[in-house]
Amino acid sequence: MHTFPKLAGACAALATLALPAVVQAQKAGTPAPAPAPAAVAAEQGPALKDGYIVGVGDSLDVVLVGGDEYRARVMVQADGTIELPYINTVVAKGKNLLQLGREIAQKLEAGGYYVKPAIQVTVASIASSYVTVLGAVGSPGLIPLDRDYRASEIIARVGGIKPGGAETFFLRRQDGKEIELAMATIARGGDDADPIVAPGDKIFVPDAPTYYIYGQVNSPGIFPIMGGTMSLRMALARGGGLTSLGSDKRISVIRNGVEMKKVDLNQPVMKDDVIVVGERFF
C-alpha cells in the first residue's frame, strides 16, 4: 500500500483544464501524444465556477498527484464510462472534473491501492461540447466550449466577421429557436443583447446584401449595403461619385427586373438593386 504523508491534508481531488499536450510532454520528457482524431482540441481557459461537464467522446487525463505510477489517458465511451487501472469502469458523463476526480480517488482508496490519494482529471481534448460557426467569418468550423462563451466571443474566436459579411447574424439553438443578433446592438447593449451559447448551437453569419452600380461613376462595381439603410445618394458616393460626364438627372434603378427611371436620391437602396448613371447632355 502506498502512502503520501505530504498530501494527507490535501483535498481528495483536483481538476483543471489540460495544458497543451506539447507542454505536458516537455515537462515529462516524452513525445507529445497524438490527439484523438474524432475530438476537437481543447484550449486553455480560465477556471470554471462549476467545472467543465464531461461528455461522450471527450479525452481525459487521469493522474495521481505526486506520483508517476498512476496515470491514464482515456476516452469517454458511448455509454458515458471510462476504463481505468485497478478500478475498471467509472461513469464520467455528466460530471464535472472535480466530481470525477473525487470519485476516482475514493475508489482507489476503498480498493486499498492508495491512502488519501489526490487525483487530477484534466481535459486532453473536447468532442462533446462545441458550437458550429458558419458563413462569412474568418475561420468557420467547430469551436470547443471549455467555459461559458457569449455569441460575440465565439465570433471573435473565429476571426470576426469578414469584410462583406452582414452586420446581423443568427444564433440557432438545438431546439430550433433562432435568435437574430446585431453586432452594433451587442457592442452598445448589456448581457441580454449578447446571449451565452450552448453546446450544439449554430451561428451563421450571412453575406451582407449588395447592390450594383455602373455607368458614369468613378468606381463602378458591387458594394455591400451597410448600416441598415443606405440612400441612393450614399450609394453614389460609395461608387466614387459621378464622373465629369455623369448626370444626377439621368440615374435609373433596376429593381426586381423592373427599371425605375424617376428616382429620388434620398430613397433607400434595396438588395440586388442595379444603379445605372447615364451621361449628361451638353
Describe the structure.
The protein has helices spanning 21-28, 97-110, 151-157, 183-188, 232-238, and strands spanning 13-15, 40-41, 59-64, 71-75, 81-84, 88-91, 119-126, 130-135, 141-144, 168-172, 178-182, 202-205, 210-215, 221-224, 246-255, 258-260, 274-279. It has 282 residues and is an alpha+beta fold. The longest helix has 14 residues, at 97-110.
Topology summary:
Elements: E1 13-15, H1 21-28, E2 40-41, E3 59-64, E4 71-75, E5 81-84, E6 88-91, H2 97-110, E7 119-126, E8 130-135, E9 141-144, H3 151-157, E10 168-172, E11 178-182, H4 183-188, E12 202-205, E13 210-215, E14 221-224, H5 232-238, E15 246-255, E16 258-260, E17 274-279
Parallel strand pairs: 1-7, 8-12, 13-17
Antiparallel strand pairs: 2-7, 3-4, 3-7, 5-6, 8-9, 10-11, 10-12, 13-14, 15-16, 15-17
Characteristics:
five-stranded mixed beta sheet; 5 helices; 282 residues; disordered N terminus; alpha+beta; rod-shaped
The structural class is alpha+beta
Strand content: 25-35%
CA-based gyration radius: 29 Å
Number of helices: 5
Taken in chain order, the helices and strands follow as EHEEEEEHEEEHEEHEEEHEEE
Low-pLDDT stretches are: 1-48
Largest sheet, in brief, is:
5 strands, mixed
Averaged pLDDT, please? 83
Distance between the termini: 104 Å
Kindly state the number of beta strands.
Answer: 17
Shape: rod-shaped
Which range best describes the helical content: under 10%, 10-25%, 25-40%, 40-55%, 55-70% or over 70%? 10-25%
